[in-house]
Amino acid sequence: MLPMAFGSTMPITPGGGAVSVPANGSTFPGSLVADTGVVALTPGLGSSITATGEERVYLTSTGLDFFIQVTNNNQTNGTDNLSLVDARNFAGFTTAVAYLTLPSGGVAPALASRAAPGDTVNFYFVDSSGRNDLGSMAPSGLGNTSDWLEIDTNATGLAFNGSIGVQDGGVASMLAYSPVPEPTTTGVLCGAMALIFIARRRAGARRLS
User: Fold this and answer.
1) CA gap 131, 138 in Å, rounded
2) String of DSSP letters for 52-76
3) Fewest CB within a 10 Å sphere: which of 8, 63, 155, 183?
4) Which of 174, 192, 173 is nearest to 183 (CA)?
5) Interior CA angle at 90 toward 27 and 189, to 5°?
């Protein structure tokens, strides 16, 4: 059974079909180990998508959790409004999805899936009526910001060799953190933090005994 690192998450498997994405509160779990900051996504050939993205990675007791937020900045181009956010590379790792709600009112994903052979996790923002919520135009003329999209994994290693993409009639992407099977510099840091976490728990248990 897939370990659940934090609150309510939904397991997804390669080629297993789309699932509803549960809300998981508004608090990040664990210790922050990496953050891309807000980055402009680069449009692909022929795309006029204008968007920004950010990824944060947290270490929990069961592995690394990845959190993604995107903002659709398109003002007038309806064909390139965003309906899909994808993240890779998660091949070889277990994954479970959720989203963190924003106090300011972010847009929640409707569904998520993991494409075979398992490297890509997809979040869909088209609801059951076919409305593209993330692509809807805000009163200011700009697009909307997603809630924090959560991907829980059993990974302990981390590298800056993944990607985050947005698409709908066009594609834009950014470099991002992804899990790796072998420890990297960041992976070693994560391992050290995990040992500190375990030591503190044991010390606390001794004080209580």
Assistant:
1) 14
2) EEEEEEEEETTEEEEEEEEEE--SS
3) 8
4) 192
5) 60
pLDDT at 138: 38
Give the model's confidence band at 156: pLDDT under 50 very low, under 70 low, under 90 confident, else very high.
very high
Q: Residue 190: which H helix or E strand, with range?
A: helix 185-208
Cα separation of 99 and 146, whole Å? 9
Closest to 159 in 3D by CA, of 192, 181, 139, 134: 181
Task: Enter the DSSP assignment of 177.
Answer: E
**CA–CA dist 66, 168 (Å, integer):** 23
Give the residue extent of every domain in the chain. 10-208
* Mean per-residue pLDDT over the chain, rounded: 81
User: Quick one: CA torsion of 60, 61, 63, 66, rounded to 10 degrees?
Assistant: -20
Residues in CB range of 117: below 8 A, 6 or more apart: 14, 91
pLDDT tens-digit map of 2-40: 344 456 899 999 999 999 999 999 999 999 999 999 999
> Could you tell me where the beta strands, DSSP code E, fall in 125-208?
148-153, 157-167, 171-180
**What's the predicted TM-score (pTM) here?**
0.80
